[in-house]
Amino acid sequence: MFERYYSISDAFQAADAVARVTVGDWQGEDLRNWVTFFDASVQESYKGDLPRNFTLVQGGCSEATSPDYPLFTSGTELLVFLRDYDGSGEKYHPITDYNTVLYVVYDEAGGRYFLDSFGTMSAQDTCVPGRTTPDSTQLAEMTADADPVLAEAISSRAEDCDSGCCAYAESALEDYFSDLAKR
Asked: Looking at the DSSP assignment, which residues form a beta bridge with residue 169?
């Protein structure tokens, strides 16, 4: 599934759908194709006509995952740039797995942010409004209530995040998506 790095704007244009979702239960895995299937529910849709509940397909399985990109767990919130997995309109996968998956995190005041924990999207798109670069302390605070596996994966990258991880304020990114949709 990994093709190239995408900027926020390129990923938005290339995606069939863009949404903030909550990961639900594990459905199963396809060991031949190294993918895992999860229930997912749409919390907010920014592009496309996703069903309210759909199958989220993640690259990786019990036999292999990417470093610092653990399998999703129930309750994790994500901002994902999706493509139809099999033409059914019921299964969707991130365009390039971890590159087009942003984790939803919250600041101390409850403000919602979308975390580019690998810094790949933000490296391509430096002019996106609402962009902030948290240091490792801020990052630890923002991920304190996250899934423990996710928090551990992010904290293992914390030193790198002092110079590379970016988070986007939800309200600014929503406005940006609205502008992109008009193009």
From this structure: 113
Q: CA triplet 60, 57, 171: central angle to 5 degrees? A: 110
* The pLDDT of residue 115: 84
CA atoms within 13 A on the CB side of 177: 23
Classify each residue of 62-96 as buried b or exposed e, where b means 16 or more C-beta atoms within 10 Å of its C-beta.
eeebeebbbbbeeebbbbbbbbbbeeeeebbbbbb
Q: Report the alpha-carbon distance of residue 166 to residue 117 in Å, rounded.
A: 7
| Segment holding 93, helix H or strand E | strand 91-94
C-alpha span between 68 and 149 (Å, rounded):
9
Q: Is the pLDDT of residue 140 over 70?
A: no
Mean pLDDT rounded to a whole number for the chain: 82
Identify the residue with better confidence: 35 or 165: 35
Averaged pLDDT for residues 83-106: 90
Cα distance between residue 37 and residue 54, in whole Å: 10
Report angle CA 117, 118, 121 to the nearest 5 degrees: 100
Q: Which long-range contacts (CB under 8 A, 24 or more apart) does 160-163 make?
A: 160/119, 161/117, 161/119, 161/134, 161/135, 161/136, 162/135, 162/136, 163/133
Higher-scoring residue by pLDDT: 144, 18: 18
